Amino acid sequence: MLMIMSLLATVARKLSSHWSCHISSQIVRTTDVLDHPAVIGMVNTSRNPERMKKLQAGTDKAVVTCFSAEYVGTGLDSDPCKAWERAKPKIRTLRIHPFKGGVYDLTRQPDGETPLAQALAMARSSFDTPWWAVLQAFGGDTPGADYNNPTPAQIRAQTHLALAYGAKGILYYSFQRDAGGQGMVDHVSLKPLDEKLKTVSELAALIASHADLIKSLKGGGLDVRCPSPFVEAVGQRGKDDKRYVYVVNKDTKNPVTTKLLLWADRWEWTSARDVFNGKGLEVKQRDKEGCLSVSLTLAPGEGQLLATDVTDRSR
What we know:
There is one protein chain. By secondary structure, this protein is an alpha/beta fold. It has helices spanning 49-57, 80-87, 116-125, 152-164, 196-209, 211-216, and strands at residues 2-6, 26-29, 39-44, 62-65, 67-68, 92-96, 131-135, 169-172, 218-219, 231-237, 243-249, 256-263, 267-268, 272-274, 280-281, 283-284, 291-298, 303-308, 311-312. The chain folds into 2 domains: 2-216, TIM Barrel; 219-312, Immunoglobulin-like. The protein is 19% helix and 27% strand. The strands form 5 sheets. The chain has a 6-stranded antiparallel beta sheet with strand order 9-10-11-18-14-15. The protein has a 5-stranded mixed beta sheet with strand order 1-8-7-6-5, with helices on one face. Helix 4 runs parallel beside helix 5. The radius of gyration is 20 Å and the shape is globular.
């Protein structure tokens, strides 16, 4: 496994689009302790709490679980919340592979699966320990493939969505592939197979530039609404009680123009700025529905982290 970026790591690495740097730190999937200098963590998929506790007791390195996000909150034996409650891992990891079957993505999941945004919200709020996201970077290019090879917009969208819901680490498999599909790099030459590695590199650089802020954010603190079903708007609270909104366009094929809304009788809001691109956004005062609003346009899969001067009138 290749760890692309971890907000818990002491050093953030920027990967070039041509694989020009060497990655020495790895998180590996194992059921035993691997005491090797290159191994900084171990992924354990066992739901046996005793095995998990034994592995944690045998090392001072990170030991993380890795379960499927689509089963969070279902109450089934496959529900990660059940395993987390029993094993009490110090770091929780969710495997998020939403692009499959030619029809499923961030806006549509198969029947019986927990909607992804809802699953991530539960992962953030149900436990105090940090959680990491293992995101999809593999798949086939035919519509009927079990997993579809994600586009650059899909890579961006799933990364921003995980960060919006508090992920403190973002991981991608470099070699993983399903039958007939492909991963990020060639197994022999280590050369990129398509644009996925370049996209992940750009995201790594963006996150590294704002890592301290992203690490500091906590969910809640802002009752923000968005009328678009394709845009996820997640209120955040930063240091000194500053308020932020992380917005993500889950439509990875089309741009979306929409607005954010706050109830004017409770909130006061005069300015907003996208942390990632530095651009300011106009805040419109009370409309006929009694809301403050900010209009915004998001490219396919784009994420914006909006810094605001919002204050709560009710305090």
